[in-house]
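User: structure tokens for GTPase Der, please.
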Amino acid sequence: MSKLPVVAIIGRPNVGKSTLFNRLVGKKLALVDDRPGVTRDRREGDATLVGVDFRVIDTAGYEDEDAATLPGRMRQQTEAAVAQADVALFMIDARVGVVPLEEEISRWLRGSDTPIVLVANKAEGKAGEAGILESLALGYGDPVQLSAEHGEGMGDLFEALLPYIDREDVEEEPEYGEDDLSAPLKLAIVGRPNAGKSTLINRMLGEERLITGPEAGITRDSIAVDWTWHDEDGEPRAVRLIDTAGMRKRANVQDKLEKLSVADALHAIDFAEVVVLLLDATRGLEAQDLRIASAALEEGRALVVALNKWDVAEHASSLFNGVKAALEEGLSQVKGVPVLTVSAATGKGLDMLIKVAFETREAWSKRIGTGELNRWFEKAVEANPPPAPGGKRIKLRYLTQAKTRPPGFILFGTRVDQLPTSYQRYLINGIRRDLGFGAVPVRLTLRAPKNPFDR
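Assistant: Done. Predicted tokens:
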């Protein structure tokens, strides 16, 4: 059995590649803007066209720049995508026609072994007729005429792709239950710009899958990459790594595209199971790091903190203790968040990071039986009875776990609306400490029985 066939979308900047990518995957996954060069890393997604499934890759706009420059590094990602694909869609803008850069792209593609399908985007109406005629000179025959924005021409695109994507030997994706711990670990790497998030993922993968460099804010889209990690027993464990854009303080974010990137990173936190907050050990912990950590915890995600660039950190011991103390003080909703030291440059500490992430997901997915839970609950209430505001006793009846991921509990009793926050925190901290939930966010909902005489 083989994996899904792969379709890469290539072309110069601003011809509509990301719009077509979003159309094929059925979601607005890739950032789209009028300005050229929005996409930088190659982004993958599962697509379906007329009932046929395939994998589609959105690539950066192809530019003729030195390999050491950022556009040059983006071009290398595009070249890697074409080499990986079963077929490449070479997209032009029908309204603009063929430009010299596209003639150069065409020459490069002819040296590739990957089959090419020419696509003329923005072909609706008569404005694109001249550009469509010009495209015949590229030597790929009649282009597929479509409008990615309006969804026109998808049938013609399907017919052109069918010989390359309709395969009988495609394996079906396994289906996982909601709490299935054998499912791939969804692990998002978040942090401020230049913390080393993309470098860290490249080190894990053992390849330059994501664009890195000294420039701050290279990553714009949240990029998900599938990876297999082998644990200490040599067992393969599936991981979906999610790289995100660096998140600066909100007041400093003025550019529309950066706002979209930050929103995309926050969406990636929603999608993740475990969030790794990556800190730059040479800069320590800043207020913005605590804001990012709080955002992850408020969404109910499990959190792990990793100090990157540990190989070049100064005053390591005092730095580590200072970060732990600041986290304890700054993250009042969760105590004891795991803090690890790593180096994306050397790979040190990465195995421990993934191991802790799997253990944290296990705690985040944990379910406690009602009997065991209430035996603990009775002892907790006996050791520290609830207060009696105004001389009226608050009677706590029983506790039940309503959900996992994050763990959510419902506390039943009378006058629970008067139960102080400090007592609720006492119960939550006890659940974490005594029942094996560790430093994952725990939700507690209070519920009183309905009064039949209350109108």
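User: Anything notable?

Assistant: The mean pLDDT is 87.
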